[in-house]
Design brief:
acyltransferase, GNAT family N-acetyltransferase, single chain
């Protein structure tokens, strides 16, 4: 098995063509948790984020097989996940919200997640990146910290969602 070496970039207009791939990768990545109502709502999240005109997505492939994906969109100014947890926002508070980073089980621990994440953010014009990570996943939070994120708070965005660590990363110098 190789790792995701073919990284393809997609945008809002591509969602109809890639939607099923995103759902299939999710079904594989969460195969053991598909009875969770929050996990079952993933198609709604795909449509919500994909509905943003500035939606950005990277899908990694191993040959013709999708390995995983990362996607997100710029945050609505003043409504960023991190804002309530930080006193005195930076002068440039433009934020890209990383909504999902998912790798199929067969390709975990191959570096695919880091490559997908880096490809998603490499040409972003925003000053910051923000993401949420399940507090019950301390190893995942620690991984994001090695990528330059820092935990700034916690939130539970939906009544049926886990409580998440709110993580923030500088993308370019302030």
């Amino acid at each position: 098995m190789t790792t995701a070496t073919d990284l393809r970039h997609y945008a809002h207009d591509d969602l109809p063509a890639i939607r099923q791939t995103l759902l299939d990768v999710h079904a594989d990545a969460y195969a053991e948790a598909m009875d969770d109502p929050f996990i079952q709502r993933f198609p709604w999240f795909v449509d919500y984020w994909g509905g943003s005109p500035e939606f950005a997505c990277v899908i990694g492939y191993d040959g013709a097989e999708p390995v995983g994906f990362a996607y997100g969109a710029p945050a609505t100014p003043g409504r960023e996940w991190w804002r309530e947890h930080v006193s005195g926002p930076p002068a440039d508070d433009s934020t890209f919200s990383v909504s999902e980073l998912m790798v199929r089980s067969k390709w975990r621990k191959t570096g695919a997640a880091e490559r997908l994440h880096a490809a998603l953010l490499e040409s972003r014009p925003e000053a910051l990146a923000a993401l949420l990570v399940d507090r019950e996943q301390p190893k995942l939070q620690a991984l994001y910290e090695t990528w330059g994120y820092r935990k700034v708070g916690e939130r539970q965005p939906f009544p049926d969602s886990p409580r998440f660590a709110v993580m923030l990363r500088q993308l370019r110098p302030a």
